[in-house]
């Protein structure tokens, strides 16, 4: 080689300048920079269906009964390349659906089955999701047949529901309406671990105290859906496992009875697979070579199918009839004494001390061969823990009650992140309103909107009071699980009326003025709150010299205390609101990261986040009336002054005590304004500054107001599923 040669290791010396692997990004040199990509994920560029595709319209032409018939047939159509256990795929598809839905967590509403995210990393390659890839391949002919009329997200959950129906369960219902995403989610924090199945200790303050698990996490280890089936950190101890199960399912919105029902019912069909060695498996789907075509975990040194399948490492079925819905799990668990054994793969599992051959499950390929049943540590927890044991005794005394409880819990598990019932589609939607669906009665639409506006205008409230109240009512919306928002006016109910972020005294004062208006006019309180906020924004725009009329659609309803599962609303409480420049307390996470997280949950784009920040500051809506970040001499007017002054090099930005900053005139050193981190990040972050500069331009004052109006309306209508 001469001095210009490059050693290519024998490969063709073709260089490329594209950053084509995910291991390194253009911003990896600055790992603490804001990940603004989470505000632009799943945009039209990633969606092959195009901007005019409407899945809900496509669903109208779906032949639901034909689809269900095809799924029923699939349950018994064993394929040679991946044969069904006992000739039935009911266990396979129950698991596909369960593991799609089971990643949901209540704390931030992220995870779950609502987007078809099991098709992409990291979930497609989680250790706990081994061989769900085979289930999706088995479903492909049906997806291919029905095409755009059925999303992957809906199909996976429906397959699990049909599996239970085929097994003999009277299911509670099913709703379509989940729309697919087309690339991995970038916003979900699954934990800080750098390796799969790292010990639980890293995500607990004290692993012996499950309540100390890091929020918003719910699973006990990286790569698991719930708990380790072998025990805490792989060490069997059913009582300790029971405590982790209780906390984990609580974080997934389940109570003790639902948890016990799901454990028993989930293990009534199917089996664990551990008749092999994990080291003989090919890489996970995301890491496998092109010859695997997205299939992972294939056995490289043996059959790896049928009785030789390897999944969790635990080997065996829970019941005598693993393809039938019955009380077999209870009969097995409570009818035998159990002892610890190792599976062929070396995993801890519980096996009966003594059992009659006729009570043993058959081999998955040869019915003449009897196999030992098993229980996981989580199963044993249901027997050892006194609370779970009592619930199981209740189920055993009333099998019909157990079946109904499981059917309802399964419906909740698989529909929790679909959102309110207004989003449900299909002939099998249950008529019953369930408390966890956050029911809201229909609101009036025929009242005189102009008369309501006139009464609001005469109520003596300030623009900032009205804007802040409407904002606080709407900002709870989470696009992750479609909860929260202004509809229902739950801001006037416990627990929201007492949240510090809602300024209870100011809120009570505003509601005392608005509630009589609702009563007098027939409008809902929810509508009146939004109308008041709109009126405040319009008056602020007029103060800036711009005539503005915000769109308004009546029809919001008012929820009652009886319709509100107060405890499940606690996770919706804002701990920070960058738009109103408020932190409940100092956190390890920076203020700007908390603001970004809130913006993503609200479904905002980066430009929308920026324009809302500037407008809210200019209108003087800060929590408690603080002046931090109000970079204008015209407070109360909807101007672009905040951006004009933020990017003006005539000022310097000086840190002072308490995490605050002073904005000083460069020449006179006079303090002009004060600021927080949440204010200054819009000038310091290169991407946010680029947007701020757009709105600071002399020719964009009108664009600023117009864009603010669109973003404001988007927030106010985020939960108006009836309008979409």
TrEMBL record:
Annotated heme b binding sites: 267
Site (Transition state stabilizer): 95
EC number: 1.11.1.21
Swiss-Prot/TrEMBL catalytic activity: H2O2 + AH2 = A + 2 H2O; 2 H2O2 = O2 + 2 H2O
GO molecular function: catalase activity; heme binding; metal ion binding
CC cofactor note: Binds 1 heme b (iron(II)-protoporphyrin IX) group per dimer.
Cross-link Tryptophyl-tyrosyl-methioninium (Tyr-Met) (with Trp-98), where in sequence: 226-252
Gene Ontology biological process terms in this record: cellular response to hydrogen peroxide; hydrogen peroxide catabolic process
Residue numbers annotated as active site: 99 (proton acceptor)
GO cellular component terms given for this protein: cytosol
Classification via InterPro entries: Catalase_peroxidase (IPR000763), Haem_peroxidase (IPR002016), Haem_peroxidase_sf (IPR010255), Peroxidases_AS (IPR019794)
Cofactor(s) named in the record: heme b
Classification via Pfam families: peroxidase
Keyword field: Heme, Hydrogen peroxide, Iron, Metal-binding, Oxidoreductase, Peroxidase
Oligomeric form and interacting partners: Homodimer or homotetramer.
Similarity remark: Belongs to the peroxidase family. Peroxidase/catalase subfamily.
Protein name: Catalase-peroxidase
Organism per entry: Alloyangia pacifica
Species classification: Bacteria, Pseudomonadati, Pseudomonadota, Alphaproteobacteria, Rhodobacterales
Gene name for this UniProt entry: katG
């Amino acid at each position: 080689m001469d001095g210009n040669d490059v050693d290519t290791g024998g490969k063709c010396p073709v260089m490329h300048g594209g950053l084509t692997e995910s291991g390194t990004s253009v911003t990896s040199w600055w790992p603490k920079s804001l990940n603004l990509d989470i505000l632009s994920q799943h945009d039209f560029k990633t969606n092959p269906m195009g901007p005019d595709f409407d899945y809900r319209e496509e669903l109208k032409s779906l032949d639901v009964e034909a689809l269900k018939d095809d799924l029923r047939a699939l349950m018994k159509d064993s394929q040679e390349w991946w044969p069904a256990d006992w000739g039935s795929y009911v266990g396979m598809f129950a698991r596909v659906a369960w593991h799609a839905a089971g990643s949901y967590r209540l704390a931030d509403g992220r995870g779950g089955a609502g987007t078809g995210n099991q098709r992409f990393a990291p979930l497609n390659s989680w250790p706990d999701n081994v061989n769900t890839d085979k289930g999706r391949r088995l479903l492909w002919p049906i997806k291919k047949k029905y095409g755009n009329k059925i999303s992957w997200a809906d199909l996976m959950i429906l397959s699990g529901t049909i599996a239970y129906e085929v097994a003999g369960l009277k299911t509670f219902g099913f709703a379509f309406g989940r729309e697919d995403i087309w690339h991995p989610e970038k916003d979900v924090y699954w934990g800080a671990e750098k390796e799969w199945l790292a010990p639980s200790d890293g995500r607990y303050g004290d692993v012996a105290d499950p309540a100390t698990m890091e929020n918003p996490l719910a699973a006990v280890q990286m790569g698991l859906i719930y708990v380790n089936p072998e025990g805490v950190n792989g060490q069997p101890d059913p009582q300790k496992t029971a405590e982790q199960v209780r906390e984990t399912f609580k974080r997934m919105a389940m109570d003790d009875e639902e948890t016990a029902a799901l454990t028993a019912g989930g293990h009534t069909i199917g089996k664990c697979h551990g008749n092999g060695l994990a080291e003989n498996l090919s890489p996970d789907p995301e890491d496998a070579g092109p010859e695997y075509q997205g299939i992972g975990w294939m056995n490289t040194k043996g059959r790896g199918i049928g009785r030789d399948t390897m999944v969790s490492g635990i080997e065996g079925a829970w019941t005598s009839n693993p393809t039938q819905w019955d009380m077999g799990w209870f009969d097995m668990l409570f009818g035998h004494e159990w002892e610890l054994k190792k599976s062929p793969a070396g995993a801890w599992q519980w096996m009966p001390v003594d059992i009659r051959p006729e009570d043993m499950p058959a081999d998955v390929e040869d019915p003449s061969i009897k196999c030992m049943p098993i229980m996981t540590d989580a199963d044993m927890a249901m027997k050892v823990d006194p609370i779970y044991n009592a619930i199981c005794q209740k189920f055993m005394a009333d099998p019909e009650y157990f079946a109904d409880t499981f059917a309802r819990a399964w419906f909740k598990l698989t529909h929790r992140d679909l959102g309110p019932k207004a989003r449900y589609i299909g002939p099998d939607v249950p008529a019953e309103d369930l408390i966890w669906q956050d029911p809201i009665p229909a609101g009036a639409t025929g009242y005189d909107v102009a008369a309501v506006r006139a009464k609001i205008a005469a109520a003596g409230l300030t623009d900032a009071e009205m804007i802040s109240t409407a904002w606080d009512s709407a900002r709870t919306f989470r696009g992750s699980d479609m909860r929260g928002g202004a509809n229902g006016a739950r801001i006037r109910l416990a627990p929201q009326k007492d949240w510090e972020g809602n300024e209870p005294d100011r809120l009570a004062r505003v509601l005392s003025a608005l509630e009589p208006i609702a009563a007098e006019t027939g409008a809902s309180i929810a509508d009146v709150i939004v109308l008041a906020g709109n009126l405040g924004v319009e008056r602020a725009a007029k103060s800036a010299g711009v005539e503005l009329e915000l769109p308004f659609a009546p029809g919001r309803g008012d929820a009652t205390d009886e319709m509100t599962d107060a405890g499940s609303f606690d996770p919706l409480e804002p701990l920070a609101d960058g738009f109103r420049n408020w932190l409940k307390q100092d956190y390890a996470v920076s203020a700007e990261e908390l603001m970004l997280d809130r913006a993503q949950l609200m479904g905002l784009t980066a430009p929308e986040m920026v324009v809302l920040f500037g407008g809210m500051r200019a209108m003087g809506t800060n929590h408690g009336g603080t002046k931090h970040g109000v970079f204008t001499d015209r407070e109360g007017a909807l101007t672009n002054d905040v951006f004009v002054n933020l990017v003006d090099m005539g000022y310097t930005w000086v840190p002072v005590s308490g995490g605050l900053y002073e904005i000083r005139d460069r020449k006179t050193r006079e303090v002009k304004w004060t600021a927080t981190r949440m204010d200054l990040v819009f000038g310091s972050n290169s991407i946010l500054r680029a947007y701020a500069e757009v709105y600071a331009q002399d020719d964009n004052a009108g664009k600023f107001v117009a864009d603010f109006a669109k973003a404001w309306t988007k927030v106010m209508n985020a939960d108006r599923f009836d309008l979409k």
